[in-house]
Specification:
With about 350 residues, the chain is mainly α. It contains 14 helices and two strands; from the N terminus they run ααααααβαααβααααα. Helix 1 runs antiparallel to helix 7 and helix 2 packs parallel to helix 7.
Length: about 350
């Protein structure tokens, strides 16, 4: 790593640590920004690096929320009684029960989603192109409908988790750093992964899966492993979101296919598929755009979002990072050889 890159990472890390103190009124929005960065990076693992565009990654987010909640509740109370809206019971959690349940729930959510991703992958990775996207979307929609009719986990009314046992502002800070730490870990992991033989293999699958198989690449193994790793991180942030939101519902919050499920794709398209920084840049720009339009263009926010997608597809087909790489390759350490052509000479 050269000095410029090291300095960049130090500045980003310092900004991450200082942001909630510099902007204390926007701690929740900053935490959501990290959520957007994480889901964009994980979507790009399969969509950008491997060439399998999924519309169902929101399945792992919603499943992570429910798994984390069930684990946290289940180690203290009967889940069915806790979620029974007609029970009228009073359920209290000690500080130790809250934090231990949260940590176990978050880790369990990630691991469960990773295992489920392997099962779903065996069923869907036989599909290619738009069929894979539609197949994964169908899984997410079906999961939301099934959970909304499952009374044991609260049905359509969802689950209400205990409130953070402390000061309200401290709770915002706590969840911000949980999201931020997950995002930093994911970024460091992906930076290492994409530089290994594994990264080259999934890029080969993206470029030409048939040739990759002919060269001896076990494509199914790489596809399942990549999607499983992405599902793990999405499940983790789903678990964190469950405790941050306190109450969540299956269709409007957990399996929100038309909101977060689409937003994560737009972030990657805006920033640039198949790049490490593209999803991050796209997530930041999209989150700022969304917050502005949702606050000042209420009623027209979806029109503004549609216009953003059209502009991105028409003028920035490779995303902002791809556009910059083509325009300013030297910024990214790419050397372009120029040939001087002399007119009227024999050279």
């Amino acid at each position: 790593m050269n000095a410029k890159k090291a300095l960049l990472y130090i500045i980003v890390l310092a900004a991450t640590l200082a942001a909630p103190f510099l902007f204390p009124d926007f701690r929740t929005q900053l935490a959501t920004l990290w959520l957007m960065i994480i889901v964009a990076l994980t979507w790009d693992m399969t969509g950008g690096q491997m060439g399998y565009n999924s519309l169902g990654n929101i399945f792992f987010y919603g499943t992570g929320m429910y798994v984390a909640a069930v684990i946290a509740i289940g180690i203290v109370y009967n889940v069915g009684e806790y979620t029974d809206a007609a029970g009228g019971g009073r359920f209290e959690f000690t500080d130790a029960q809250y934090f231990s349940g949260m940590m176990l729930g978050i880790i369990g959510a990630g691991l469960f989603c990773a295992l489920v991703a392997v099962v779903i992958g065996y069923l869907t990775f036989g599909l290619r192109g738009p069929y894979f996207a539609i197949g994964t979307l169908g899984v997410a929609i079906a999961a939301g409908e099934l959970v909304s009719n499952w009374d044991w986990v609260g049905g359509g009314q969802g689950i209400a988790l205990p409130v953070y046992p402390g000061d309200f502002d401290t709770g915002k800070l706590y969840f911000y750093y949980l999201f931020a730490a997950t995002g930093v870990i994911l970024f460091v992991f992906l930076r290492w992964l994409y530089a290994t033989r594994f990264g080259a293999a999934i890029n080969a699958i993206r470029d030409d899966e048939g040739k990759a198989e002919a060269m001896g690449v076990h494509t199914m193994r790489y596809k399942l492993t990549t999607w499983s790793m992405a599902a793990f991180f999405v499940g983790v942030v789903g678990g964190i979101s469950a405790f941050q939101l306190i109450h969540f519902e299956p269709l409007e919050t957990a399996y929100q296919t038309i909101n977060l499920g689409i937003f994560m794709v737009v972030c990657v398209l805006l920033g640039g598929k198949g790049t490490l920084w593209g999803p991050i840049v796209g997530a930041i720009l999209f989150h700022v755009f969304k917050e502005v339009t949702w606050n000042y263009l209420l009623g027209w926010q979806w029109v503004a979002l549609g216009a953003l997608i059209v502009v991105t597809v028409v003028y920035f087909q490779d995303g902002i990072m791809g556009w910059l790489i083509h325009r300013k390759p030297e910024w990214f350490g790419i050397r372009v050889e120029q040939k001087n052509l002399a007119v009227g000479t024999d050279e």
